[in-house]
Design brief:
The protein is α/β, with parallel strands linked by helices and 369 residues long. Helix content is 30%, strand content 18%. Strands 1, 2, 3, 4, 6, 7, 8, 9 and 12 form a 9-stranded mixed β-sheet that branches. A 3-stranded mixed β-sheet has the order 5-10-11. Helix 6 links the parallel strand 6 and strand 7. Helix 1 crosses helix 10. It is elongated, with a radius of gyration of 20 Å.
Length: 369
């Protein structure tokens, strides 16, 4: 593992929970804190190690979840390596990770290739545990309150709009100081669920410009590529006149564009992102207890933020090792609990699961064995 990988979090959350400096986000918390909900097993009775790999967008939330869970379960070590969503699913399927974090649900082909950790004849399931808006973040000196619509975002990230003072951008930003400078596009280099959600949004809302299907790998040869949420954040901060799509948890210190939703421009907000997810159906054709969400990208309700990602905890519904199942079930129960969701909101700015969705997730977790 690369011990130098960093996870970026909101500055305001530092006082709440110390962010681990290493790639393995394990925390040995004090025993005197109030017990958290850990499933059917009494707090402090569990012991063992859980290894997770996956979403870098989910990384800051995992820091909070690990700290909270280990406070109540000091004999358990939870490690999380934020390599990216694709790496998470690959390592889970190979058996190298006990669970995966992914900003995209398992593909049909991945479901058909179960992890060797899962009991023979059973499948993995997707548990939505983290909801966050995706920011269009930029680094342009003197530019504030940038406004963009889906077609203009698509033109920028496709490479059809190449300068900041392009007529399409100017028409949306009357009175703004737009430099006559080339736009540096930054996108993910790795197999990314954030890319999947970003391209899905553009495919739905700007199909005449964005002529590629939703994908987890960036579909155009343009701009600079960076790995993970922190890599994209570093790249944008280091490059003048740059722009990127990034989970909001990684956008601290950067400008964030307003998004045109319907006839209005909306500032990024976790509540609007969560409301879009709450009004979206569970994807059709999934297995029992699988809660992949078919996000309604065309939601135009007031303050809606349809450029949203749902990040999943991917687990076996039935593990071959009952002891491992007990640990996964307890950790997932904490992650999806009101306490766990509140901790993630504080640390990463995510929005807690809506009541109905939280109930569905809890019901699915209860079936893990």
């Amino acid at each position: 593992m690369n011990v130098n990988r960093r996870i970026f979090t909101r500055a305001s959350s530092i006082a709440a929970i110390a962010v681990a400096a290493t790639i393995v986000l394990s925390s040995c918390a004090a025993n005197e804190a109030a017990p958290a909900s850990t499933g059917t097993t009494a707090p402090n009775a569990l012991s063992g190690t859980l290894n997770g790999i996956g979403s870098s967008a989910q990384g800051a939330a995992e820091t909070a979840w690990i700290a909270g869970f280990q406070t109540s379960n000091p004999k358990v070590t939870v490690n999380y390596d934020p390599q990216g969503s694709g790496a998470g699913r690959t390592n889970f399927i190979s058996g190298a990770a006990d669970f995966a974090g992914s900003d995209a649900a398992l593909k049909d082909t991945e479901i058909a290739t179960p992890s060797p950790l899962c009991k023979a004849g059973t499948k993995a399931i997707d548990l939505p545990v983290y909801i966050s808006p995706i920011a269009i973040a930029y680094n342009v000196d003197g530019l504030k309150d940038l406004k963009l619509d889906a077609a203009t975002i698509a033109g920028i990230f496709k490479g059809a709009i190449t300068k900041w003072d392009d007529a399409a951008i100017k028409s949306l930003n009357s009175g703004a100081t737009l430099p006559s400078a080339p736009i540096t596009v930054v996108h993910r280099s790795d197999d990314s669920g954030t890319t999947q959600n970003f391209t899905d949004y553009l495919s739905a809302n700007a199909p005449t410009v964005w002529d590629k299907p939703a994908a987890q790998t960036y579909p155009y040869a343009i701009g600079d590529a960076a790995k993970g949420t922190s890599g994209v954040a570093d790249a944008v901060k280091g490059a003048a006149n740059s722009i990127a799509y990034i989970d909001e948890s990684g956008a601290t210190g950067l400008g964030i564009a307003q998004l045109k939703v319907g006839d209005s421009f909306v500032k990024i907000n976790a509540a609007g992102a969560a409301d879009v997810v709450a009004k979206s159906p569970v994807a059709a054709g999934r297995g029992t207890n699988d809660l992949a969400i078919a996000i309604d990208r065309k939601n135009t309700d007031k303050n809606a933020w349809p450029l949203v990602l749902v990040s999943y905890m991917i687990v076996c519904n039935t593990y071959d090792d009952p002891a491992k199942a007990e640990l996964v079930k307890a950790y997932a129960s904490y992650v999806a609990s009101s306490e766990g969701q509140s901790a993630a909101a504080t640390q990463a700015g995510s929005s807690p699961l809506a009541k109905d969705l939280a109930a569905k997730v809890a019901k699915a977790i209860a079936t893990i064995k």
